[in-house]
């Protein structure tokens, strides 16, 4: 996957850069750095580990997300933050993750600039969700979530602004917003239709 991320392309991919900004945030305010772990399972048909956030969280309650959060001063950059957050949220041992590298950053509606960190993990690990943050941990087929056919563009009115976003529906799970946008970017960066056909 690292080679695919670095491979030269004849045309640059069109990437998504940010959600519509929250009207309560200062437009000049610097975004808060954050990182998420894009954990790909090392199996013949790779999967992707996602979480469903608890319904009691102040922001993004009940939504599907990658394990992750803000980058703390003690973290070793985005990779350190992604590994720490994955340990805290789902009990993933950092030693079990083979880091591939960072992907394209994405700015969220809530003022975070998120660096997705791609890593490969063994299949069928037992996860321990942190009950205050994570309601469920599940695996989706990587080829499904990266296939542009499954990237549905939708829109909704939010704070008086039409917000356009992508969503990916799999197995009763609605993956949308920033998580879907990062998957769309990864698909475009990898030129997934061509890569999947190779």
Q: State the share of residues found in helices, binned by percent.
A: 10-25%
Shape: globular
Tell me the span between the first and last alpha carbons: 13 Å
How much strand? Answer: 25-35%
CATH homologous superfamily label: Nucleoside Triphosphate Pyrophosphohydrolase
Question: Any idea of the CATH class?
Answer: Alpha Beta
Report on the structure:
This is Coenzyme A pyrophosphatase. Pfam families: NUDIX. GO terms for molecular function: coenzyme A diphosphatase activity; metal ion binding. Keywords: Hydrolase, Magnesium, Manganese, Metal-binding. It comes from Sphingomonas turrisvirgatae. The chain has 198 residues and is of the alpha+beta class. It has one domain: Alpha-Beta Complex (Nucleoside Triphosphate Pyrophosphohydrolase), CATH 3.90.79.10. 22% of the residues lie in helices and 34% in strands. It has 5 helices and 11 strands; from the N terminus they run αββββαββββαβββαα. It has helices at 2-6, 77-90, 142-146, 177-190, 192-197; strands spanning 32-41, 47-53, 64-65, 68-70, 98-102, 106-107, 112-121, 134-141, 152-158, 161-170, 173-176. The strands form 3 sheets. Strands 1, 4, 5, 6 and 7 form a 5-stranded mixed sheet that branches. Strands 3-2-8 form a 3-stranded antiparallel sheet. Strands 9-10-11 form a 3-stranded antiparallel sheet. It is globular and about 45 Å long. Mean pLDDT is 85; it is low at 20-25.
């Amino acid at each position: 996957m690292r080679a695919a991320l670095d491979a030269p392309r004849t045309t640059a991919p069109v990437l998504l850069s940010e959600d519509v900004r929250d009207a309560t945030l200062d437009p000049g305010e610097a975004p808060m750095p954050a990182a998420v772990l894009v954990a790909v399972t090392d199996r013949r048909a790779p999967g992707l580990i996602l979480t469903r956030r608890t319904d009691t969280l102040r922001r993004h309650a009940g939504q599907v997300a990658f394990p992750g959060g803000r980058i703390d001063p003690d973290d070793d950059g985005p990779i350190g933050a992604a590994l720490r957050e994955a340990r805290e949220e789902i009990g993933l041992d950092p030693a079990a993750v083979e880091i591939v590298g960072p992907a394209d950053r994405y700015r969220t509606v809530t003022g975070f600039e998120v660096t997705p960190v791609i890593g490969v993990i063994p299949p069928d690990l037992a996860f321990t969700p942190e009950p205050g943050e994570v309601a469920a941990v599940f695996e989706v087929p990587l080829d499904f979530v990266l296939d542009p056919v499954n990237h549905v563009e939708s829109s909704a009115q939010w704070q008086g602004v039409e917000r356009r976003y992508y969503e990916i529906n799999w197995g009763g799970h609605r993956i949308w917003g920033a998580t879907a946008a990062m998957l769309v970017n990864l698909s475009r960066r990898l030129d997934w239709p061509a890569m999947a056909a190779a």
